[in-house]
TrEMBL record:
InterPro entries according to UniProt: Methyltransf_25
Residue ranges of every copy of the Methyltransferase domain listed in the record: 42-130
The protein, known as: Methyltransferase domain-containing protein
A GO molecular-function annotation: methyltransferase activity
Key word Methyltransferase present: yes
Keyword Transferase: yes
UniProt KW keywords: Methyltransferase, Transferase
Alphabetized CDD domains for the sequence: AdoMet_MTases
Pfam families: Methyltransf_25 (PF13649)
GO BP annotation list: methylation
Length: 258
């Protein structure tokens, strides 16, 4: 089972941990919101290399990590021997015994094929009263970055690439949760400008990491000038004296299965 996300399987797990470690670092408050208790069973959906999965386990919970990338799961198993990780598709995964909570950080927006199917699968994985605690990109996330991308593609006479993400508004995602049998207890929507501290190539590095599928099929000689143009277009909004910023907008929620 795999997420149906172009380019996801090609993610470099080492680069993800080193260059984009803020994904895990920024997730620490979400673990506090989950507040896992000793003996609870928690499923970490879209666990990546398992950093937050391990934090949840450290608090005494029994945790299963699921991710669509076999490279991520391989890295997680190597880093945290004795913990449970599997490759799985969030749209249709099943569990043998329901969990007390499902947790997800910076992953739901990649599960764009059918968001309702993801929520339904989460519901079926939970006990009645079980918690669904997650953070994802919200409407407006990476707007400057994606606008620079699309403009650069148009300027080079290319068809605009299909972007692999789903960034819902708070109202839209609350409706989806409620229609799939959840009661929303908390929903926060906020800007979180994030330094791209390990991106010497600026927005171009971000594109190579998070939107690599947009580069598929392009002539090799076109990629570098195309990404240079992305940098030129994004720089006025996102480049600071201290370095590049990502214009992140986050949607964080806690919901309970009816």
């Amino acid at each position: 089972m795999r997420y149906d996300t172009p380019g996801l399987e090609r993610w470099n797990s080492r680069a993800y941990d080193s260059s984009f470690g803020y994904v895990s670092t920024q997730g620490a408050p979400l673990v506090d919101l989950l507040d896992p208790q000793p003996g609870e069973r928690v499923l970490d959906l879209g666990c990546g290399t398992g950093v937050l999965t391990a934090q949840i386990a450290f608090r005494g919970a029994e945790v299963l990590g699921i991710d669509g990338s076999s490279a991520m799961i391989e890295k997680a198993l190597a880093q945290y021997p004795g913990m449970n990780f599997i490759v799985g598709d969030a749209h249709d995964f099943t569990v043998a015994r329901p969990y007390d909570a499902v947790f997800s950080n910076a992953a739901l927006h990649w599960m764009s094929r059918d968001p309702d199917a993801v929520i339904a699968s989460v519901r079926e994985a939970l006990l009645p009263g079980g918690r669904f605690v997650a953070e994802m990109g919200g409407a407006g996330n990476c707007a400057e970055l994606t606008t620079a991308m699309l403009t650069a593609w148009r300027e080079h006479g290319l068809r605009e690439p299909e972007l692999p993400w789903y960034f819902p508004s708070p109202a839209e995602y609350a409706r989806r949760l409620e229609s799939e049998g959840f009661v929303v207890r908390l929903l926060e929507y906020f800007d979180r400008p994030t330094p791209l501290e390990e991106c010497p190539g600026g927005a171009a590095d971000w594109v190579r990491m998070f939107a690599s599928s947009a580069l598929d099929g392009l002539a090799p000689g076109l990629v570098d000038p195309l990404l240079r143009r992305v940098n030129e277009l994004a720089a006025p909004a996102l480049r600071r004296e201290s370095g590049w910023m990502a214009d992140y907008v986050r949607l964080r929620f806690a919901a309970v299965r009816r």
